[in-house]
Amino acid sequence: MPRIITVGAAQLGPIQRAEPREVAVARMIRLLERAQIRGVEFVVFPELALTTFFPRHYLECLEDADPWFEQSMPNDDTAALFATAKRFGIGFHLGFAERAQEPDESGVVRTRRFNSSILVSGKGDIVLKYRKVHLPGHAEFDSKRQVQHLEKRYFEPGNLGFPVIRAPMGNLSGLNMGMLICNDRRWPEAWRVLGLQGVEMVALGYNTPSTNQAAAGFEAPHLRVFHSHLSIQSGAYQNATFAVAAAKAGVEDGCELFGHSIIVNPQGEILAQATSWDDELVVADCNLEQCALGRTTIFAFDKHRRPDAYQRITQQVGAVEPHVWAPEEK
Ligand code: CDT
């Protein structure tokens, strides 16, 4: 019996700062309705899907940002989304800002803020939570930037690792699923940790500006899209997994997000791609048997990986300059 699941990347157009959650949730419900008509069993919504991408806004006091955060999930604002998905039997992925009261590394219970995502089964159960590990940007207002990127101000790095769960999804009694959030997709280590748990489908939400302000050089907008796709396609290929990547797109609070949501197969091929900067559902049938080729041949990890040679990956953070060759070493 082939293991096939029909999935959707539910791209969202912009959500402006003044727009309340109920507007975003109503739009997501409309996408779920379209998903149901098209036979979709699992829908991926973007990173921070309920609000504007607020890390572009500087607030002096962290507590003033609390209205952008969720203290529980589901909650009054998202109950209708959960109920609709459950009524249709559609599983989903949702990215949101999480505010939790929990112990830190020293055991002190305090308010903690994370850029989080969850996987929800078609029965409405939350089967997995992930907290974004790679937080881009900066913690303080940067007067040199036209647009701030304050993820390091508003969030702590995720403390759940990169978990994978085998859970029922759609018609499948078990599917190995994991999550990455936006900037995580650019880090091969993150994909490999998922790959080492036999992941078959990676759900990924993102908000990526069309332009990157960097003193070190210019990155053209088409290369921004290329680098996003390159990262997702190579991550899927090198770990023999499907990836469903859903973006927020369009001009949000005056800042352009490039969209280009995609669904990728384990060969690294794009199966479906968004073409608008609006709410858009792109759909693909994913035959999970296609994960077998990579994981039994070129990426048969148990046969070919050499972790002894990878020690720098876990022992070192920044790059270390190499030994300088001298003529006497001839
Ligand atoms: N949301 C997110 O992680 N965006 C980053 C852009 C960072 S630009 C400072 C990304 O990697 O897409």
Write up this protein.
Helix 1 packs parallel to helix 2 and helix 4 (188-195) packs parallel to helix 5. Helix 4 links the parallel strand 7 (172-181) and strand 8 (201-206). The chain contains 8 helices and 14 strands. It is of the alpha/beta class and 330 residues long. 4-methylsulfanyl-2-ureido-butyric acid (CDT) is lined by residues 47, 136-137, 149, 182-183, 186, 206-208, 212.
Structural key phrases:
330 residues, single chain, globular, binds 4-methylsulfanyl-2-ureido-butyric acid, alpha/beta, 28% strand, 6-stranded mixed beta sheet
Brief rundown of the structure:
This protein has 330 residues and is α/β, with parallel strands linked by helices.
Topology pattern, helix = H, strand = E:
EHEHEEEHEEHEHEEEEEEHHH
Largest sheet: 6 strands, mixed
Our estimate of the beta-strand percent is 25-35%
Question: What is the tally of beta strands?
Answer: 14
Low-confidence stretches: none
Number of helices: 8
Distance between the termini: 62 Å
Q: Helicity range of the residues? A: 10-25%
Please, what is the average pLDDT?
97
Could you say which overall geometry the principal axes of the C-alpha atoms support?
A: globular
Structural class: alpha/beta
Radius of gyration equals 20 Å
Task: Going across the biggest sheet, name each strand in turn.
Answer: 5-4-3-2-1-14
Report the bound ligands by name, code or SMILES: 4-methylsulfanyl-2-ureido-butyric acid
